[in-house]
């Protein structure tokens, strides 16, 4: 995670961002701190990278690396305003003992568009990540990749429209929640085939970035407005934790955007 010490909205690279609206860096830090504290209360270890001046979106750590079995695929951002973030995260990995670190040749915004299910890597495209990055991810990470087409610019990354609630194990399929209308008709059919028991979110869930959630298989960090989704989570045995992300959402981010998951 990266503290939003320099958080602001100075430019527009997604439909959520409006530089004419007031933004409170102090409130963003408060929201982010509560998210980090939530992970600690759940019993997880949280690592931090130093925020850098001039990179107001560096708080969205999910966009800068995909880590599976200790192998790291870095990021290559589409927006020039965020390009410098990638190398700061690359150096963090090397400084923290990761040796299998590869920087991509194709544009990919990491866990923004790459979501690990425990069996396959779901890979989004349509607004940020180059379709060619899907094949590159498969080659570098050594896991099977399934491409999904995003069609609604509000849900510009896969992690705004789909959340893995439980990763697959040897005796259990992965369980996900997603918003069908964010995907092309073909991708909707793929998701239904892969996850017939998925939780299906509604428009209100999606519009508050309710699917930009983080689950450890039991606890789920979700925006406080995602009440319909929360009810479904409870019905499926999960324990949702409601969080205020109203300030971070002004830049199009939520709990997952702020969280890179380090696997292995």
UniProtKB/TrEMBL annotation:
This is Amidinotransferase. InterPro entries: DDAH-like. The keyword Zinc does not apply. It comes from the Bacteria. Keywords: Hydrolase. Belongs to the DDAH family. The keyword NAD does not apply.
């Amino acid at each position: 995670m990266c503290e939003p010490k320099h958080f602001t909205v100075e430019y527009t690279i997604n439909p959520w961002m409006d530089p004419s609206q007031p933004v409170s860096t102090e409130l963003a830090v408060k929201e982010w701190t509560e998210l980090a504290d939530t992970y600690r209360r759940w019993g997880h270890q949280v690592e931090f990278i130093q925020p850098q001046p001039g990179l107001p979106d560096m708080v969205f750590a999910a966009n800068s690396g995909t880590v599976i079995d200790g192998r790291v695929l870095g990021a290559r951002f589409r927006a020039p305003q965020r390009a410098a973030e990638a190398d700061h995260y690359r150096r963090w990995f090397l400084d923290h003992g990761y040796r299998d670190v590869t920087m991509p040749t194709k544009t990919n915004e990491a866990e923004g568009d790459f979501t690990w299910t425990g069996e396959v890597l779901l890979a989004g495209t349509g607004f940020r990540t180059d379709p060619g990055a899907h094949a590159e991810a498969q080659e570098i990470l050594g896991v099977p990749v399934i491409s999904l087409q995003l069609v609604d610019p509000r849900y510009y990354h896969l992690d705004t429209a789909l959340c893995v609630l439980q990763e697959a194990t040897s005796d259990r399929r992965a369980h996900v929640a997603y918003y069908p209308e964010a995907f092309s008709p073909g991708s909707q059919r793929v998701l239904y085939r892969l996850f017939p028991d998925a939780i299906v979110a509604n428009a209100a869930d999606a519009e508050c970035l309710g699917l930009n959630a983080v689950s450890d298989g039991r606890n789920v960090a979700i925006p406080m407005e995602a009440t319909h989704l929360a009810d479904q989570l409870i019905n499926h045995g999960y324990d949702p934790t409601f969080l205020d992300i109203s300030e971070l959402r002004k830049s199009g981010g939520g709990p997952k955007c702020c969280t890179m998951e380090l696997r292995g």
